[in-house]
């Protein structure tokens, strides 16, 4: 599974760094390093935008864990 997080300046101001850090920690905690590839890109529109295998989602630091559970963990198991 390929997960791409926007790290552009606008998203950075909206918490993309915290989203990246949270997703990295959750991938590691759930031992999914061999199943989930995290990457970064610049502007994908209003965000913090995250794509999962090309499907776009809007995520904030407050919703990152819920997003992980629903859109990543549930789909890789």
What does this structure look like?
The chain has 77 residues and is of the alpha+beta class. It contains 3 helices and 4 strands, in the order βααβββα. The chain has helices at residues 9-13, 16-29, 64-76; strands at residues 2-6, 37-41, 49-52, 55-58. The chain has a 4-stranded mixed beta sheet, covered by helices on one side. A hairpin with a 2-residue loop joins β3 (49-52) and β4 (55-58). The radius of gyration is 11 Å and the shape is globular.
**DSSP summary, beta strand count:** 4
Question: Whole-number average pLDDT?
Answer: 91
- Overall helicity: 40-55%
Q: Identify the quaternary structure here.
A: single chain
- In DSSP terms (H or I, runs of 4 or more residues), the helix count works out at 3
Q: What integer value in Å does the Rg equal?
A: 11 Å
Strand content range? 15-25%
Shape designation: globular
Q: Spatial order of the strands in the main sheet?
A: 2-1-3-4
User: What low-confidence regions span 5 or more consecutive residues with pLDDT below 50?
Assistant: none
Order of helices and strands: EHHEEEH
